[in-house]
Amino acid sequence: MSLQKRAKWKSKTGFIFAAIGSAAGLGNIWRFSYLCYRNGGGAFLLPYFIALIVVGIPLMILEFGIGHREKGSAPKSFYSISSKLEWIGWWPVVFVMFGIVVYYNVIISWCVNYFYHSFNLSWGADPGAFFDSFLNVTSGPASIGSISLPILGGLILVWIISWIIVFFGVQRGIERATKILIPSLFVLTIILAVWAATLPGAGDGLIQYLRPDFSSLADAGVWIDAFSQIFFTLSLGFGIMIVYASYLPEKTNIVGDSLKIAVGDSLFAFIAGIAVWGTLGYMANAQNVEISEVVSESVGLAFVTFPQAISLLPAFSVFFGLLFFAILTFAGISSAISIIEAFSSSLMDKFGFERKNVVPVVCAIGLLGGVVFTTGAGLYWLDIVDHYLTTYGLVAVGILECIVIGWYVKAENLRKYINSVSVSKIGKWWNYSVKIFIPALLLFFLLWSLGVELTEPYGGYAVSILVFIGVNWVVMTLVAAFVFSFLKWKKEAV
After folding, report:
1. Among 295, 414, 463, 469, fewest CB within 10 Å belongs to which?
2. Cα–Cα distances in Å, from 85 out to 75, 90, 95, 404?
3. What is the rounded distance in angstroms from the CA atom of residue 50 to the CA atom of residue 9?
4. What span, in angstroms and rounded, lies between the C-alpha atoms of 102 and 104?
5. CA–CA separation, 323 vs 271, rounded Å?
6. CA 43, 45, 49, 51 torsion: positive or negative?
C-alpha cells in the first residue's frame, strides 16, 4: 500500500457536510416518504428511529472508527488489519463504483433534463406518456433500443461536474462543493416543504403521511423496510464513510459526528416527505380523487406524479418545477462524488497514483458504463441492478464488517480507540451490537430477501438476465483492472 501524504479536511463543517451529502441522496426525497405511507404512516417512524439508533449510528461509528484509526480507504484500512482482508475493502468500492454510480448518474441526468423541461412544462397534460417517450422505453430489458441523446448529454455533463469536483481533491473540491450544495439543498427543501404544506388539500396529504397505523407494527416486513432504509440511506457498506473519516485530524469527535450526520440525514428525509405529501394532497384535491390514486412509488413519484402536480398549480408552476428538480440534482451530485472519491482514493492508496491521473480515468470508465442506461431498456436495467446490488451486496458488506471488527479486531479494541479520540464516548453496549445484534439482523434480512426471491423472482425477470448483469459487471471490472494495471506499469517504467 502507498504511503503518500494523506489529505485532510480543512474544517469539521466540511466533513459533516460531505458526509451528509453522501447520505442525503435521491432516495431520501421519494423513498422515505413512500415507505412511511406504505408501512403505517406515522407508525413507521417508530421502527425507523429504532433502526437509526440500534443499527445506523453504531455502524456509522464503526466505519468512521476503521477509517480514522487506519488512515486509509476501505481496501487500505482492511489491509492494515490483515493483508488477507484487503478484499473486503475492495468489494464495496468496486461494485458501488461500477454498479451503483453508473446508473445513479443517469438518474441525475434525468433530473438535469427535467430541470430544463420545467421552464416550459414540456411534459404537458400526460407526464407518464412524456416520461416513457423521454426514455424511449422498450418492451423489456432484452430489447435494448436506441440511445437517448438528451439523456446521454445530461450524463456527460453530470460526469464532467463530478470529475471537476473530485479532481480538485478533498479541500478544494469535495469540501468546497458540499459547503455550497448541502446548505442550498436544505434551504431549497425547506422552501419546498413550507410551500407544499400551504397548498389547498395539503393537510390531507400530510395526514396520510403521518397518520399512525400501529397495527402495521406487527408486520415483519415493516421492520425490515425500516432497517433496510436506514442501512442504505446512511451510505453504510459503500466504503465512503471509511475514506471520509481517514481525512479527519488525530483528535476528532467520531461519536458526536456520527450522531449529527445520522440525525441530519433523517431530518432531511422527513422534511422532504412533507414537501412530497403536501404536494400529493394538493394533487388529489385538485383532481377530486383519493390520495391513494395519485401515489406512485420511487421513480414514478419524481418524474410522473410530481410533474403532474406541478402542472396543476394555479401559479408559480415553473418556479416550483425548477425548485424540485434542482433539489434532486443537488442531492444526486453530492452522493455521486462521494462514491467516486471512495474508489479513487482506494486506487491512490493501493498504487500510489496521483489524483490528477486517477480521477479522469475513473470518470471516463464510469461514463462508458452508464451508456446502457441511456437506452430504451435503461429503466429496466436500472431497476434490476439497483435491486440486486443494494439488497445483497451492501448487506453482505455490513455483515463482514461486523464480523471482522467484532471478532477479529475485537470490538472492545476499536471502542477504546474511538473513545480515546472522541469527546463523546460509547459504552460496552456497542461491542455486543457490532458482534451479535447487527450481523444477526442483517443476516436475517439477507436470508429473508433471498427466500422471497426464490419464491417470486424480482420483477419477474429471467435468471438469464441476472447472469447477463454478472457478466457485464465482471467485464467492466476486468477492463478497469487492465487500465489501472497499465497505468501502474507506466508509472514504474518512468
Report:
1. 463
2. 8, 9, 17, 9
3. 31
4. 6
5. 15
6. positive
What residue spans define the domains of the chain? 12-493
Give the CA count within 13 Å in the CB-facing half-sphere of 241.
30
Cβ–Cβ under 8 Å, residues 98 and 476: yes
Residue whose entry in the numeric block shows the C-alpha cell 412530497: 276
What residues does 147 pair with on adjacent strands? Answer: 375
251: left (phi over 0), alpha (psi -120 to 50) or beta: beta
Which pLDDT belongs to residue 464?
Answer: 45
Mean pLDDT of all residues belonging to the chain: 85
CATH class name, domain 12-493:
mainly alpha
**Which CB contacts under 8 angstroms, 24+ apart, belong to 417-420?**
417/65, 417/69, 418/61, 418/64, 418/65, 418/68, 418/254, 418/255, 419/255
Separation between Cα atoms, residue 381 and residue 100, nearest integer Å = 11
Place of cell 463523546: 424
Q: Which of 37-46, 66-75, 271-280, 480-489 has the highest mean pLDDT?
A: 66-75
- pLDDT, tens digit, 9 for 90 and up, residues 319-352: 989 998 999 899 899 999 999 999 999 999 988 8
pLDDT tens track for 196-242: 899 899 998 898 888 877 888 888 778 877 887 887 788 888 899 99
Radius of gyration of the chain measured on its C-alpha atoms: 22
Q: In the numeric block, which cell numbers belong to residue 189?
A: 427543501
Q: Record the cell numbers describing residue 223, joined without a space.
A: 421492520
Do residues 86 and 106 touch, judged by C-beta distance below 8 A?
A: no
The three-point CA angle 36-202-275 to 5° equals: 55
| Whole-Å CA distances, 275 to 30, 202, 229, 317 | 10, 9, 19, 15
Q: Judge contact between 399 and 439, C-beta under 8 A.
A: yes
The cell for 74 is: 476501505
All three cell numbers of 288? 377530486
**Residues making up the chain, counted from first to last:** 494
Q: Give the angle 254-255-261 at the CA atoms, nearest 5°.
A: 85
| Count of CA atoms in the C-beta half-sphere (13 A) of 37 | 27
Cα(301)–Cα(283) distance, integer angstroms: 12
Which of helix, strand or coil describes residue 375?
A: strand
Helix (H, G, I), strand (E, B) or coil at 392: helix
